[in-house]
Amino acid sequence: MRHIADIPADIPAVIAAVTILAAALPGAADGQQARPPSFVILLADDLGYGDLGCYGHPTIRTPSLDRMAAEGARFTQFYCAAPVCTPSRAALLTGRLPVRSGMCSEKRRVLFPDSADGLPDDEVTLAEALKTKGYATACIGKWHLGHLPRFLPARHGFDRYFGLPYSNDMHNVGRGDPPVPLLRGDEVIEQPARQEALTSRYTEEALRFIGENRDRPFFLYVAYTFPHVPLHASARFNGKSPRGLYGDVVEELDASVGEILGALREPGLAGRTLVVFSSDNGPWLTQGLAGGSAGLLREGKGSTWEGGMRVPGIAWWPGKVSAGRLITNVVSSLDVFPTFLTLAGIEPPRDRAIDGREVSALLLGTAAPPEAPFFYYRDETLMAVRKGPWKAHVLTRPGYGAAEPKRHDPPLLFQLERDPSEVHDVAKQHPEVVRDLLGEVERHRAGLRAPPSRLEARTART
Amino acid sequence: MRHIADIPADIPAVIAAVTILAAALPGAADGQQARPPSFVILLADDLGYGDLGCYGHPTIRTPSLDRMAAEGARFTQFYCAAPVCTPSRAALLTGRLPVRSGMCSEKRRVLFPDSADGLPDDEVTLAEALKTKGYATACIGKWHLGHLPRFLPARHGFDRYFGLPYSNDMHNVGRGDPPVPLLRGDEVIEQPARQEALTSRYTEEALRFIGENRDRPFFLYVAYTFPHVPLHASARFNGKSPRGLYGDVVEELDASVGEILGALREPGLAGRTLVVFSSDNGPWLTQGLAGGSAGLLREGKGSTWEGGMRVPGIAWWPGKVSAGRLITNVVSSLDVFPTFLTLAGIEPPRDRAIDGREVSALLLGTAAPPEAPFFYYRDETLMAVRKGPWKAHVLTRPGYGAAEPKRHDPPLLFQLERDPSEVHDVAKQHPEVVRDLLGEVERHRAGLRAPPSRLEARTART
């Protein structure tokens, strides 16, 4: 499955590849000052498809996200690009499948505190691309794309960083992990991080960044630490949700979203910012009640069943994205990179494959994106493919646990728009669909250049 | 489990028991003309908890029900009183558990075209009670409380009836069933009923009834035939939903709700009508893609797992029920009877047990109802009990299929607000809760007087 690496480009060449296309800017045609929109990504960690009020959860109260959806567009077929944390985030920030950047591995599914590597320099992140157009940029929250200084957000286009370098459960004493650190820029400012304070501190940092950048375009990436385990809520939320601690944590996250959107509704900022809310992957079901719910979807985090990769997705841009839209088109976190760049009038890099599609017309309600296959990877392995309503599983495997992958020949075939829970295999009834999907897999594999994994190298222990 | 029958009361005595309490009327105190509110019940058949957009379904488009929820209150812990059709409807219209009226049976779970019996005369239906206060009443749609003339809606307080006497799949040729008839009043007007036209004809009838009764209080009970199988949609909806025929049928039902609410928004009617939408039981999972989805809930129709009995519930009364409320309190279709009566200024019958609670204060946002146990019956058998967030299963059994009931000692215990999917049995950790719930079961059984089943008698075949 692995091929030789993409040819690494040096950094100046990468940046040069990001051409500014001022003429393509919204507003440029009618003679307005061409100020591009600001962007905010609000990313939950391990939040499942079924965990929000507006996605049907019975007892988790999420009035701010429900309002965000009512004022904007709620997606029902929004995918993350990988079912675990590190590859999913690499894909979100680059628009590229993790297998192209080496940010996946079956041996070590994510980066750990003893990892020696991180996101390669030659990857162009959303922050780097937007900086070419003068955006102020901030990463607040969990990074998880390399905790060593040369991989931290400052090396990937972020002016500012405040958060955890990896997951909040990564203090394995046996492995020699240090207590989980809280960083500002490259500096550890607290260790162990006080986890119950994280969500409110992220909110404060986000509000400060917005306040300081009212007069220029900005890109704010808030990667919440929760509801990844261990769950911690502040005193204001602890013990308040009927759903227990998991609910407390999601309700605190919801309140944070409410505060951030509140700041963006202020005079002078209203209508200038596109906000996207999502999750890095599905719910961690093996955590019991400390894990979330995929609603009607099958399985969860770690797997390429729908519950592992279909996640909540909400887009909010008052005046641009019509209120109360329900969007059932297939989109993914890979699409964020080319879409934001287009809206900012920046051409995506041409020297590499970009897997995401530019879907601004879908957001603005002017056109549906053309049909394209979506590939479900578990680590380096292509497990399934979706095209239109059809999904073929070549391989299946539970998200967690000892079970080996199971090969399906013919693949399992599900019509997801009719059978979102993946219960009724219809491969026998639709051999032509199976052939078409397998053809997509072959074409994809033929065009793929996958470098060695970056997730396996470890630092020497002293 | 069965005890001797309730003492039957003759009809005049029953009606006399329904005392009019004009002083309790909303509006009476401030000297207004005391016109009580009108009531509409919109009841889907076999619609699951997860089948509407506002309950998280990804591809069934229900803009009218979503708007109804946005303008009113959406319930996330709303129960029907029985997991199959006949007992559920008997309970809705009487406020009494079906075991009290004989409207349940393990041998024959619902009424069939060869059934000889129906809802007893001495039961007081919502329509009968409201008629004491001058309400115009109509039953449009599926009745299923006795198809012989002496059991039809006209005998139970409805001025008008248009619809099917039982389920739309009840044409078993081997059993000697006639084609499914469509009735107006007691007369068969079409046989077989053209099923693809039913939803739009129900809508027309409902709109006509509303139009003819603009100037007086009315009670309209629309019991949709669908999405019970066999699924039929009109040409306008057929083949339109991404969810396939099941989606077509639900989307047509949604459009019907939109038309009915539209009529109730007209000048002169606006604000005068409380509308409740729900389903008679959970989705019929063994029907494959012709059955619906219980979302994150376990199991479906026929069972006392949550998916069998927790259903969508939406209340709409502009100006009285605040817009956009999410109500997580436990309520059930049993509560409709005493609540509507209270709002109409009518005292419920005192000569019999009423299992529902009066929850008008919850609807109006002034107070939560006191905690009370909710009993999950499968036919005549008490299977489980809920109190607060806790549910104890004494017995479990799949909704359909050959599996025998399984007794649990100690009962299975789930904390439903934390574990809505009933995955984590916590009986061992909470013996005191188990004891309390078993005490509720004992008290309930001690006070129960259950007559013989009415669902088992068959007509002689010629």
- Summed up, the helix count of chain A is 11
User: In terms of per-residue confidence, which ranges of chain A show pLDDT below 50 for 5 or more consecutive residues?
Assistant: 1-32
The SS-based structural class of chain A is alpha/beta
CATH class identity of the largest domain in chain A:
Alpha Beta
CATH topology of the largest domain in chain A: Alkaline Phosphatase, subunit A
SS elements, strand count of chain A: 15
Percentage of residues in DSSP E strands of chain A: 15-25%
Which pair of chains has the greatest number of interface residues, and how are they split between the two chains? A-B, 37 and 37 residues
Distance between the termini of chain A: 36 Å
Rounded to the nearest angstrom, the radius of gyration of chain A is: 21 Å
Let me know the CATH homologous superfamily of the largest domain in chain A. Alkaline Phosphatase, subunit A
Mean pLDDT of chain A: 93
What is the succession of H and E elements of chain A?
Answer: HEHEHHHEEEEHEHEHEEEHHEEEEH
- Approximate shape of chain A: globular
| CATH architecture descriptor of the largest domain in chain A | 3-Layer(aba) Sandwich
Helix content of chain A: 10-25%
Q: Number of domains in the coordinates of chain A?
A: 2
Largest sheet of chain A: 11 strands, mixed
